[in-house]
Amino acid sequence: MNDSVFTTSFIDRIKTTLDENCTEGTGQCITRTNLAKALGLDLKLRLESALGTLVTSGKIAGYEVRKGPRGGIGRTGERVERKPSTPSTPDISDEFKGKLMAALQTLCDSDGTPVPRDQIQEHMGVEKSLPLISAAVRLDEFSDFKTKVGKGGGVRRIVETLDTEDEIECNETEPGSENLGQDLTASMEENTEDEDEELAEAAI
Length: 204
Known about the structure:
Among the domains are: 3-75, Orthogonal Bundle (Arc Repressor Mutant, subunit A), CATH 1.10.10; 94-161, Arc Repressor Mutant, subunit A, CATH 1.10.10. The two termini are 32 Å apart. The model is unreliable at 172-178 and 191-204 (pLDDT under 50). It is mostly helical. The chain has eight helices and five strands, in the order αβααββαααββαα. A three-stranded antiparallel beta sheet has the order 1-3-2. Residues 67-91, 166-204 are annotated as: Disordered.
């Protein structure tokens, strides 16, 4: 971009507008679109992109362009501190725990077969309790049970032999797996060559 078309007075206007909208010490920023509006610029000229370029080129001292959903233009080195959100633990009553334990003891077989949550919910007689069932099973009181996600999932009783076999299967290397990486690499190279040929034909 030829930034010589921007006069010193115009750049000073940008700096003043940024100072007004980005209070020092707060980490606040303003989007390029809102900055262009504040300056009274015609957005049809796509000048918001030029404003970002002015900042990144160093013409507007003390400011930086920030990318991402919370991006815009803000003071260099200042960011709004956002505390990581912590998942809230649902309030599960003792009555609910008791009904759930009774249902699991009745429905979950000793062979570890998963029982769908909606079936557990129906047995308990408590509507709209599917999320609570999953949350409760993770509590220490239900250490004999575990949830199984995906198709055919639900809640099942922990069976020592079954869970031990699952761990062994995860740790064992299947025959021929040592060549898996080479096969995948070769397949990716073949696909890349095919894509290059298709692009070349499309360009003709």
